[in-house]
Write a structure and sequence with these properties.
By secondary structure, this protein is α/β, with parallel strands linked by helices. The chain has two domains: 226 residues, Spore Coat Polysaccharide Biosynthesis Protein SpsA, Chain A (Alpha-Beta Complex); 53 residues. Helices cover 39% and strands 22% of the residues. The chain has ten helices and eleven strands. Strands 1, 2, 3, 4, 5, 6, 8, 10 and 11 form a nine-stranded mixed beta sheet that branches. Strands 7-9 form a two-stranded antiparallel sheet. Helix 9 runs antiparallel to helix 10. The longest helix has 25 residues. It is globular, with a radius of gyration of 18 Å. It starts with a strand and ends in a 9-residue tail after the last helix.
Length: 295
């Protein structure tokens, strides 16, 4: 059994994937690490160079785009390991980050999931590095911008956990799906990612289910990765935007919908649909990025 299995889901990531794999080779001991790239039917020739440059990587080539969660589960099922890492192809590993997180996870028996400091190219923290599980309340405050106005407020700042010190290791509710490490026992208990989430939301759902199983999730400040945000998804902006907002409805229905009456459920869906319409309008007028990709 490998100590660590790294799963990278690729879709037209091109040079970003090659740079990610090169950083893995440079910053990670590969003796007890296996890397699997699951390709979701990228364009012809997208992986030919990567397959030549990185013969130590296992490639799984899908004939169609099956979505992030399904592709991740393919990678997870391909080999057994003590620990697993879901890693985006548009990330760069810095300063032995993977080894540092493995050591932290191995020495913290209560930890089900561990994330690290995920940085923008300019070195600033990406807010999704540590955040709360979305609720109607904290999502409402976030949409109103109250978390930005009152970042240190325990009430208003919870959505992106702005009140927490990013320089300290600490328990959190959720971490960034761009770098998400977890232990084998959690995979056995959950069965992996929920494949109803095609793109977006599956990481929050997985973190929430880990908490429900009694595990703790941790933000580990002692490791850093660079994340260039949705490089592969920008080429299909309209589709990505749909999946982003659809994931909101899926997450709400799965975890909160059965607790709420019909009227509230309809209002939540209507609110999400309105946000989706506004995002599409802004993208057509201003060609903005995928919503939420910087959060």
């Amino acid at each position: 059994m490998n100590r660590l299995l790294v799963i990278i889901v690729n879709y037209n990531s091109g040079e970003c994937l090659e740079e990610c794999l090169e950083s893995l080779r440079r910053e990670t001991s590969l003796d007890e690490t296996q890397v699997v790239v699951v390709d979701n039917a990228s364009g012809e020739g997208d992986l030919s160079k990567a397959q030549t440059l990185f013969p130590w990587v296992d490639f799984i080539l899908n004939s169609k785009n099956v979505g992030f969660a399904t592709a991740s589960n393919q990678g997870l099922a391909s080999q057994n390991a003590s620990f697993y890492l879901l890693l985006n192809p548009d990330t760069i590993i810095l300063d032995r980050a993977i080894e540092r997180v493995v050591e932290f996870l191995a020495s913290t028996p209560a930890a089900g999931i561990v994330g690290c400091r995920v940085e923008n190219p300019d070195g600033t923290l990406q807010k999704a590095s540590r955040r709360s599980i979305p609720t109607i309340e904290n999502s409402f405050y976030h949409l109103l911008g109250l978390d930005r106005l009152f970042p240190n407020s325990l009430r208003f700042g919870r959505y992106n956990a702005r009140h927490l010190d990013p320089g300290k290791n600490q328990k959190v509710e959720a971490v960034s799906g761009s770098f998400l490490m977890f232990r084998h026992a959690l995979l056995e208990q959950t069965g992996g990612l929920d494949e109803r989430f095609f793109l977006y939301g599956e990481d929050l759902d997985f973190c929430f289910r880990a908490l429900q199983k009694g595990w703790s999730n941790y933000y580990f400040a002692g490791a850093r990765v660079l994340h260039r945000k949705s490089q592969s998804a920008q080429s299909v902006l309209e589709s990505s935007t749909f999946h982003f907002y659809n994931a909101m409805k899926l997450f709400y229905d799965k975890h909160y919908g059965t607790r709420h009456n019909v009227l509230l459920r309809r209002l939540v869906h209507l609110a999400v649909d309105l946000l989706h319409s506004q995002a599409r309008l802004r993208q057509k007028v201003f060609r903005l990025r995928i919503p939420g990709s910087a959060d």
